[in-house]
Amino acid sequence: MKGKEQMSVNTQDMEVVHRVLRRESRLPAELVAAVAPGDAARAEVIADHFRVHRPGPHSHHQGEDELLWPPLLSRVDLESEIEQPA
After folding, report:
1. What is the C-alpha to C-alpha distance for residues 70 and 72, in angstroms, rounded to an integer?
2. What are 54-69's pLDDT values in tens digits?
3. Residue of 10, 4, 2, 9 whose CA lies nearest to 74
4. Are the CB atoms for 31 and 60 separated by under 8 Å?
5. Which end of the chain has less Cβ packing within 10 Å, N or C?
């Protein structure tokens, strides 16, 4: 890219966060299925965990929309990247 300063970005933290969010999104169904019938105490622990986790993916992606995508999109010319039909 001529005339534009290149910025180095370490995406390792983002990879870890996405891995954790995917893992945590799979867990509720597995954990609920493992609760013994009538075990209200265990069901409440799992419900509390889900209440904490549930807003995480939304707020994470909202943060990406506000903080990540604008700088990334400013570095590309989308019109020039789209192949025009012959």
Report:
1. 5
2. 898 899 889 889 888 8
3. 4
4. no
5. C
57, with CB counted inside 10 A (0-12, 13-18, 19+), is middle
The closest alpha carbon to 68, from 6, 31, 14, belongs to: 14
Q: What is the pTM of this model?
A: 0.56
Kindly calculate the radius of gyration of the chain based on its CA atoms and give it in whole angstroms: 21
- The tokens describing 69, both together, are 């995508």
Distance CA 49, CA 27 (A): 10
Residues 6+ apart with CB under 8 A from 36: 42
